[in-house]
Design a protein that fits this description.
Number of helices: 4
Order of helices and strands: HEEHHH
Strand order of the largest sheet: 1-2
Strand content: 5-15%
Number of strands: 2
Radius of gyration: 13 Å
Length: 107
């Protein structure tokens, strides 16, 4: 979840979208990691019991500088050990070439 200040006008919609996607994934028995540069440690949810933790993490996300999102994406991809779908919720008001250069398939 992009927490840059450019997301302020759509913040409520963005967090609700992340919560809805996370809820659907967990109810489908998939693990979900909610990560944002303004949230600190990513929250991993593997069962419906963890949904409250995910919602709390979304409520506590703080605004961050736009340039930190590209670096944050790089760090998250480097930490990822398992294959799977990544959903990025952002207004993409930053240089996307920085993310594409990481070497992952981005559509």
């Amino acid at each position: 979840l992009d927490s840059s200040s450019s997301m302020a006008s759509v913040w409520q919609l963005a967090t609700r979208m992340v919560a809805a996607i996370g809820f659907l994934a967990v109810r489908s028995q998939d693990a979900v990691t909610v990560a944002s540069p303004g949230a600190g440690t990513p929250v991993v949810v593997q069962s419906p019991r963890g949904l409250q933790r995910m919602l709390s993490a979304l409520i506590n996300v703080q605004a961050t500088p736009a340039d930190s999102f590209t670096e944050f994406c790089r760090q998250q991809i480097a930490r990822s050990k398992l294959p799977g779908l990544v959903v990025v919720v952002s207004d993409f008001m930053f240089e996307i070439a920085g993310i594409r250069s990481i070497g992952q398939s981005i559509t």
